[in-house]
Amino acid sequence: MAAFWENPFIASAARYSVVILCTIVFLAIFELVTSYKNWKEIKEGNFAVAMATGGKVLGIANVFRFSIQHNDTILESISWGAFGFLLLLTGYFIFEFLTPTYKIDEEIGNDNRAVGFLSMVISIGLSYIIGASIL
Question: How far is CA 133 from the centre of its chain?
Fold first, then answer.
Protein backbone atom coordinates (compact mmCIF):
# COMPACT_ATOMS: atom_id res chain seq x y z
CA MET A 1 0.00 0.00 0.00
CA ALA A 2 2.93 2.35 0.66
CA ALA A 3 4.01 2.01 -2.97
CA PHE A 4 0.58 3.24 -4.04
CA TRP A 5 1.02 6.56 -2.20
CA GLU A 6 4.60 6.91 -3.45
CA ASN A 7 3.45 6.93 -7.07
CA PRO A 8 4.03 10.53 -8.26
CA PHE A 9 0.68 10.64 -10.10
CA ILE A 10 -1.21 9.53 -6.99
CA ALA A 11 0.72 11.94 -4.77
CA SER A 12 0.02 14.82 -7.17
CA ALA A 13 -3.68 13.95 -7.37
CA ALA A 14 -3.87 13.71 -3.58
CA ARG A 15 -2.24 17.10 -3.04
CA TYR A 16 -4.40 18.64 -5.75
CA SER A 17 -7.57 17.28 -4.16
CA VAL A 18 -6.59 18.47 -0.71
CA VAL A 19 -5.74 21.97 -1.96
CA ILE A 20 -9.08 22.22 -3.80
CA LEU A 21 -10.93 21.22 -0.64
CA CYS A 22 -8.90 23.66 1.50
CA THR A 23 -9.51 26.45 -1.01
CA ILE A 24 -13.27 25.87 -0.82
CA VAL A 25 -13.18 25.90 2.99
CA PHE A 26 -10.98 29.01 3.12
CA LEU A 27 -13.18 30.87 0.62
CA ALA A 28 -16.20 29.97 2.77
CA ILE A 29 -14.42 31.50 5.75
CA PHE A 30 -13.67 34.65 3.74
CA GLU A 31 -17.37 34.73 2.81
CA LEU A 32 -18.25 34.72 6.52
CA VAL A 33 -16.00 37.66 7.38
CA THR A 34 -17.09 39.95 4.55
CA SER A 35 -20.27 41.99 4.67
CA TYR A 36 -21.23 41.04 1.10
CA LYS A 37 -21.97 37.68 -0.50
CA ASN A 38 -19.09 37.01 -2.90
CA TRP A 39 -20.78 34.71 -5.39
CA LYS A 40 -24.06 36.65 -5.46
CA GLU A 41 -22.16 39.89 -6.14
CA ILE A 42 -20.01 38.26 -8.80
CA LYS A 43 -23.10 36.83 -10.50
CA GLU A 44 -24.56 40.36 -10.55
CA GLY A 45 -21.42 41.69 -12.24
CA ASN A 46 -19.66 43.34 -9.30
CA PHE A 47 -16.14 43.52 -10.72
CA ALA A 48 -14.59 44.80 -7.47
CA VAL A 49 -15.79 41.69 -5.64
CA ALA A 50 -14.53 39.52 -8.50
CA MET A 51 -11.06 41.10 -8.26
CA ALA A 52 -10.95 40.82 -4.47
CA THR A 53 -12.14 37.20 -4.57
CA GLY A 54 -9.75 36.37 -7.40
CA GLY A 55 -6.90 37.80 -5.35
CA LYS A 56 -7.92 35.61 -2.43
CA VAL A 57 -8.05 32.52 -4.65
CA LEU A 58 -4.64 33.30 -6.15
CA GLY A 59 -3.25 34.12 -2.71
CA ILE A 60 -4.46 30.82 -1.24
CA ALA A 61 -3.13 28.88 -4.23
CA ASN A 62 0.24 30.63 -4.02
CA VAL A 63 0.59 29.88 -0.31
CA PHE A 64 -0.15 26.22 -1.03
CA ARG A 65 2.34 26.24 -3.90
CA PHE A 66 5.09 27.18 -1.49
CA SER A 67 3.72 24.80 1.14
CA ILE A 68 3.81 21.83 -1.22
CA GLN A 69 7.20 22.81 -2.57
CA HIS A 70 8.82 22.91 0.87
CA ASN A 71 7.11 20.01 2.67
CA ASP A 72 7.26 16.28 2.10
CA THR A 73 3.91 15.12 3.45
CA ILE A 74 0.35 16.16 2.70
CA LEU A 75 -0.25 16.81 6.40
CA GLU A 76 2.70 19.23 6.58
CA SER A 77 1.48 20.97 3.43
CA ILE A 78 -2.03 21.34 4.85
CA SER A 79 -0.67 22.63 8.16
CA TRP A 80 1.53 25.27 6.54
CA GLY A 81 -1.22 26.13 4.05
CA ALA A 82 -3.73 26.65 6.87
CA PHE A 83 -1.21 28.77 8.77
CA GLY A 84 -0.60 30.80 5.61
CA PHE A 85 -4.34 31.26 5.20
CA LEU A 86 -4.61 32.58 8.77
CA LEU A 87 -1.87 35.08 7.92
CA LEU A 88 -3.75 36.11 4.75
CA LEU A 89 -6.91 36.55 6.81
CA THR A 90 -4.98 38.64 9.32
CA GLY A 91 -3.65 40.75 6.46
CA TYR A 92 -7.23 41.32 5.30
CA PHE A 93 -8.22 42.61 8.76
CA ILE A 94 -5.11 44.81 8.94
CA PHE A 95 -6.02 46.31 5.54
CA GLU A 96 -9.50 47.10 6.89
CA PHE A 97 -7.99 48.57 10.08
CA LEU A 98 -5.48 50.77 8.24
CA THR A 99 -8.21 52.52 6.26
CA PRO A 100 -10.32 54.11 9.03
CA THR A 101 -11.84 56.77 6.76
CA TYR A 102 -13.91 54.17 4.86
CA LYS A 103 -14.90 50.52 5.14
CA ILE A 104 -13.12 48.25 2.67
CA ASP A 105 -16.01 45.76 2.65
CA GLU A 106 -18.57 48.44 1.86
CA GLU A 107 -16.46 49.91 -0.93
CA ILE A 108 -15.90 46.51 -2.54
CA GLY A 109 -19.58 45.65 -2.09
CA ASN A 110 -20.45 48.94 -3.86
CA ASP A 111 -18.22 47.94 -6.82
CA ASN A 112 -15.40 50.38 -6.06
CA ARG A 113 -12.94 48.83 -8.50
CA ALA A 114 -9.95 50.73 -7.19
CA VAL A 115 -10.45 49.22 -3.74
CA GLY A 116 -11.17 45.80 -5.25
CA PHE A 117 -7.95 45.98 -7.27
CA LEU A 118 -5.94 47.07 -4.25
CA SER A 119 -7.43 44.24 -2.20
CA MET A 120 -6.48 41.77 -4.94
CA VAL A 121 -2.90 43.04 -5.12
CA ILE A 122 -2.53 42.97 -1.34
CA SER A 123 -3.75 39.35 -1.18
CA ILE A 124 -1.38 38.28 -3.94
CA GLY A 125 1.55 40.26 -2.56
CA LEU A 126 1.09 38.93 0.96
CA SER A 127 0.89 35.38 -0.39
CA TYR A 128 4.42 35.72 -1.78
CA ILE A 129 5.73 37.00 1.54
CA ILE A 130 3.91 34.28 3.45
CA GLY A 131 5.05 31.63 0.99
CA ALA A 132 8.68 32.73 1.21
CA SER A 133 8.55 32.29 4.98
CA ILE A 134 7.21 28.71 4.84
CA LEU A 135 9.78 26.23 6.03
Answer: 16
Collapse the DSSP code of 73 into the 3-class scheme (helix H, G, I; strand E, B; otherwise coil) and give the result.
coil
Question: What stretch of H or E contains 41?
Answer: helix 38-43
CA distance 101 to 124: 24
Helix H or strand E encompassing 46:
none
Predicted TM-score of the model (pTM): 0.90
CA distance 33 to 29: 7
DSSP string computed for 79-127: HHHHHHHHHHHHHHHHHHHT-TTS-HHHHHHTT-HHHHHHHHHHHHHHH
Q: In degrees to the nearest 10, what's the CA dihedral of 130, 25, 32, 121?
A: 30
State the 10-residue block means of pLDDT for the chain, 135 residues long.
80 93 96 92 97 96 94 90 95 89 92 96 96 89
